[in-house]
Design brief:
Belongs to the thioredoxin family. DsbA subfamily. The protein has 281 residues and is of the alpha+beta class. 61% of the residues lie in helices and 8% in strands. The longest helix has 29 residues.
Length: 281
């Protein structure tokens, strides 16, 4: 009989260990609570089984029963310790991350010209805006098809840059300032094109080299670049604030007449321009 009762205790202990493994895997409070409740019920049932087996045997096993009950108490103590450990290990459920809202390409945003130079006819019926990071390789890649497409619509399409330098591109903001400084001599677009082509090697020396190549007065460029830094910083900050407001999530991000567009190759740009022209008529 004593051997049989010990086996019951062993089975219960095994059940506890399995329960611990389940809780550790699931790491959820409701399962933990259920396990605790079930363990208590199993232990209570075990006491009844022990008592029934003692009565059926007709034997006086007081000493043996005391030992078994002591084992049971020890087991209960171990369960209590395990429960405390599990409570410490079970982390609160992480909040469910919500997916970002779907893009609304029909929404028209107000994107003012403000301080931005405009390429092309300022009164053109179609305006393309690019939020750019001059170190971003994708900006360089997708700028070309857009620039090629607008050449086919003289006086009908204009274009402007808004700066959105990304934090991990150390030279993106200085490059934007270099473009503004070049604009003081009427060479903003020449500088911008060169910056995009040389995005992987930008630094102050490269800015000066480009300034020389595009025919700037280098000394004036250097002066405007450094002495007007606070002004350029203000322009960039305004561009970034505007970008956040209109839903820019990365670069490049293009807008055509205020609506975000997925146009990226010449054909899709021409399609987008035609649709905007038709809407204006």
């Amino acid at each position: 009989m004593e051997k049989r009762i010990f086996m019951i205790v062993l089975v219960v202990a095994l059940g506890v260990l399995v329960g611990v493994k389940i809780v550790s895997k699931q790491a959820k409070a409701p399962i933990l609570q259920t396990l605790i409740e079930q363990q208590s019920k199993i232990l209570e049932s075990q006491k009844h089984v022990q008592q029934m087996m003692q009565r059926d045997s007709g034997e006086d096993n007081g000493g043996s029963m005391s030992e078994i009950l002591q084992r049971q108490k020890n087991l209960e103590g171990r369960i209590a310790v395990l429960e405390q450990k599990l409570k410490g290990q079970v982390a609160p459920s992480a909040p469910v991350r919500q997916a970002p809202p779907a893009e609304d390409f029909s929404k028209k945003h107000d994107i003012p010209v403000d301080h931005s130079p405009v390429y092309g006819n300022k009164n053109a019926p179609v305006t393309i805006v690019e939020f750019v990071d001059f170190q971003c390789p994708f900006c360089a890649r997708f700028h070309k098809p857009m620039a090629k497409a607008i050449q086919e619509y003289p006086n009908k399409v204009n274009y402007m840059i808004k700066n959105f330098p990304l934090g991990f591109h150390a030279q993106a903001k200085p490059a934007a300032k270099a473009a503004f400084a070049a604009g003081e001599q009427g060479k903003y677009w020449e500088m911008a094109e060169a910056l995009l082509k040389n995005g992987s090697v930008l630094n102050d020396e490269k800015f000066e080299e480009i300034a020389r190549d595009i025919g700037l007065d280098v000394k004036k460029f250097q002066k405007d670049y450094k002495e007007k830094d606070a002004q350029w910083e203000e322009y960039i900050t305004k561009d970034m604030s505007l970008g956040s407001k209109v839903g820019v999530r990365g670069t490049p991000t293009f807008y055509i007449n205020g609506r975000k567009t997925t146009a990226r190759d010449v054909a899709s740009w021409k399609q987008a321009i035609e649709a905007s022209l038709k809407e204006k008529n």
